[in-house]
């Protein structure tokens, strides 16, 4: 398990608030920033998990503090704060260059992938 992971993306039309329906401006959508943060945390949690075990996001508390325009490169960082028996808690941050544009905490829970999916298919 890694203690620190990053994920990077470029703000494209598809990742704007206008395109995602979370706003009406051509700026980085909060849901896109959150997805990038979650991806960084998922990568950290995945390291060293047994075959067939994965993690799912169960809690996200973040602020989106600065706007980023088209073409901006965004880096999300996840730092492990706590590992419990079946969950991981991360500090998550998003940056445009050296400027932090968002921050918060994210919790991921471990699940057995096939059992998790089987429950979905029963309903």
From TrEMBL:
TM helices/strands, residue ranges: none
Q: Which residues form the Fluoroacetyl-CoA-specific thioesterase-like domain?
A: 11-113
State a single Pfam family of this protein: FlK
Q: Where does substrate bind?
A: 57, 108
Q: Which residues bind CoA?
A: 57
Active-site residue list: 30, 38, 64
Q: What is this protein called?
A: Thioesterase family protein
């Amino acid at each position: 398990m890694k203690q620190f992971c990053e994920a990077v993306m470029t703000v494209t039309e598809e990742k704007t608030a206008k395109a995602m329906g979370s706003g009406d401006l051509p700026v980085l959508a909060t849901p896109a920033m959150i997805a990038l943060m979650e991806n960084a945390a998922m990568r950290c949690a995945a390291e060293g998990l047994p075959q067939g075990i994965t993690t799912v996001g169960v809690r996200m508390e973040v602020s989106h503090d600065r706007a980023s325009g088209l073409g901006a490169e965004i880096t999300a960082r996840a730092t492990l704060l706590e590992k419990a028996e079946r969950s991981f808690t991360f500090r998550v941050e998003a940056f445009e260059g050296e400027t932090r544009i968002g921050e918060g905490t994210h919790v991921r829970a471990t699940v057995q992938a096939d059992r998790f999916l089987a429950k979905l298919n029963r309903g």
